[in-house]
Amino acid sequence: MIIVLLLLFISICFNLQAEVITQKDRSPKRAIIVGASVGMGRELAKRLAADGYIVGMAARRIGLLEELQQEIPTQTYVMQMDASKPYESADKLNEMIDQMGGLDLLVLAITGYYDCDFESDDWTRSLSVLEVDVLGFFALARTGFNFFEKQGHGHLVGFSSIDGLRGTAGAPAYSGAKAFCSRYLDAERNKYIQKNIPIFVTDMVPGWIDSKGDFDFEAMPQAYWVETLEDATHDILEAIKNKTETAYITKRWQKVAELLAVIPNDLYNVLSARPGGSF
């Protein structure tokens, strides 16, 4: 009789524990997208919400975020955030994490590209891309990693660019800034792998994307393989789900990346010496 009662007690405890684990697994994941007002960030916010995420959306233009919030029927959060102000942005990111009750996925889809004039020899006309894509990117990424380290797990996704793989003559500061993003993410990923900590890092490397409201690359004479926003977002979501280390958006840009890694400088400069200065 005692043995039967003991087995019954063990069974109840096991079932309760299994139920707790099941409920935990069923709890919605939380994602924050910085740069959610336009383009890939905006589309990704809608798709993650449709996949069951509680989504936090941050960007400079709060009005666009509020409009997007009305399009999403599930629970969302919005916050005005200017990544060119790293101290303020880091504080706001922590505030949003607190408001949402945690964080599983942080996506940094930010750039100061569109505020720059790369044809000017005035260095201040290119400063925005360094403020956002280097200082702001680093501040927000490090803030996210700090939270993930305390939590013991997490996934950070950062957007770099094909233009960060080699020096792009038409936009030197942008090319250098995106190279920083890729190398920094690579370094953080290696650290967590070496320490065996389940914090995953994905470098999204897009090529030309018709991002509808962000910038019309179809109007640029040097643009090729211009992908639709829908196709690009499909590959981005797939990379997030698979926790891919380096994801080329879309996948065929990996062929360009492989070529850029081995092509000699003289041949690279001949092929890229055209309007825009990119490969």
Describe what this molecule looks like in 3D.
With 279 residues, this protein is an alpha/beta fold. The chain has one domain (28-272): NAD(P)-binding Rossmann-like Domain (Rossmann fold). The chain is built from nine helices and nine strands. It has helices at 2-26, 39-50, 62-71, 86-100, 127-151, 172-194, 229-242, 253-262, 265-272, and strands at residues 30-34, 54-59, 76-80, 105-108, 154-159, 199-206, 209-210, 227-228, 246-249. The protein has a seven-stranded parallel sheet, sandwiched between helices. Strands 7-8 form a two-stranded parallel sheet. The longest helix has 25 residues, at 2-26. Mean pLDDT is 87; it is low at 16-24.
Features:
Rossmann fold; alpha/beta; 279 residues; seven-stranded parallel sheet; globular
The total of beta strands comes to 9
Taken together, the total number of domains comes to 1
Give the spatial strand order of the biggest sheet. 3-2-1-4-5-6-9
If helices are DSSP runs of H or I spanning 4 or more residues, what is the number of helices? 9
Mean pLDDT: 87
**Largest sheet report:** 7 strands, parallel
Radius of gyration: 21 Å
* Helix-strand sequence: HEHEHEHEHEHEEEHEHH
CATH 4th-level superfamily: NAD(P)-binding Rossmann-like Domain
Name the poorly predicted regions: 16-24
CATH level-two architecture = 3-Layer(aba) Sandwich
Distance from N terminus to C terminus (CA atoms, Å) equals 79 Å
> Which secondary-structure class do the elements indicate?
alpha/beta
Share in β-strands? 15-25%
What does the overall shape look like? globular
